[in-house]
Amino acid sequence: MDLGAFSSGLLTGLREGVEAALIVAIVLAYLVKTGHGQYASRIWLGAGAAIATSLVVGLVIFLTVGGLQSPYEQIFEGITMLVAAGVVTWMLFWMRRQAASVKGELQHAVDRALTEGSVWGLAVLAFTAVIREGIETSLFLVGQVDSADTAAPSVLLGAVVGLAIAVGIGYVFYHGTRRINLGSFFRWTGVGLIFIAAGLLSHAIHEFIEVGVITVGTQTAFDISATLPHEEGIGLFLRALFGYTSQPEVITLLAWATYVVAVLALFLRPVRRPPAPVKVATSQPVQP
Asked: Has this prediction a pTM greater than 0.70?
């Protein structure tokens, strides 16, 4: 088993799985709290359909890539990695902005479905809430599998383990424990995903260089293969996890460094909360 590829898949499955698990846990807990626990099966139905759809989407993309011939395979793989890196970047910042309000929005959606008398709306709610996480996970994992080559099974195994842990975290959250600091969890796993996405970005650029799509900055920036080769040991681990290479092209290295510095700076900056509305005291009318 490739430990680096396993760790990469584990982090992806854990981070994305926790988001989906928390969404389901919030909705289920709210249903039980409001005395509508009998409709929980609708939530499981919607979540299960979203997971199945995500698996099908990921499988279709993976088989499409594998069925192409060179150089179209490399081009499609590069595009898949770029899309995966873009999607996970968008997801990180979306979650960063919405984390404070997502619970209230989900509860409001549950109230609306129950008030309108359509309990099947709960299944739709669960499906739409989970499908985004599922599609993102599928795209990201396909990109990682493409870049991992022979270590692809380790990526998938890591993702399964990460998703299993995420289910456990969702279960604990459902039962109301406060032992898990979700803010710190999302912050540090987000940092890890930024480095993984940067590796996908640089690998995509390398694929485009190989087929001649990119012709600028293709010279080797440095060669440390004698010290830390990416084919074995720690270098292989770093390659599988973060896209490390001991012989990066100038454009590849520049893109990796620019992405990491820019996205980390934006992701780690303090979140600006909207100012609380100021209550204006109403004055009593003056008596004549």
From this structure: no
Choose between 288 and 132: higher pLDDT. Answer: 132
- 240-255 per-position pLDDT tens digit: 777 788 999 999 999 9
Query: Number of structural domains, the chain?
Result: 1
**Max avg pLDDT among 184-193, 204-213, 227-236:** 204-213
Whether 163 is covered by a domain: the verdict is yes
Contact call for residues 146 and 156 (beta carbons, < 8 A)? no
b/e burial code for range 64-96 (CB count within 10 A of at least 16 → b)? ebeeeeeeebbbbbbebbbbbbebbbebbeeeb
- Cα angle vertex 209, ends 207, 215, to 5°? 160
283 assigned to some structural domain: no
Q: Which amino acid is at 44?
A: W
* Cα separation, 18 vs 186, whole angstroms: 9
**Amino acid type, 87:** V
Kindly state whether residue 280 falls inside one of the protein's structural domains: no
What range does the domain containing 208 cover? Answer: 3-268
Token pair belonging to 208: 């485009």
Is 287 part of any domain?
no
Cα angle at 92 between 87 and 98, to 5 degrees?
A: 120
| Count of beta carbons in the 10 Å neighbourhood of residue 120 | 12
**CA-CA distance, 106 to 191, in Å (whole number)?**
26
Q: Which value, in Å, is the radius of gyration of the alpha carbons in the chain?
A: 23
In angstroms, the first-to-last Cα distance of the chain is 88
Three-state DSSP state, 285: coil
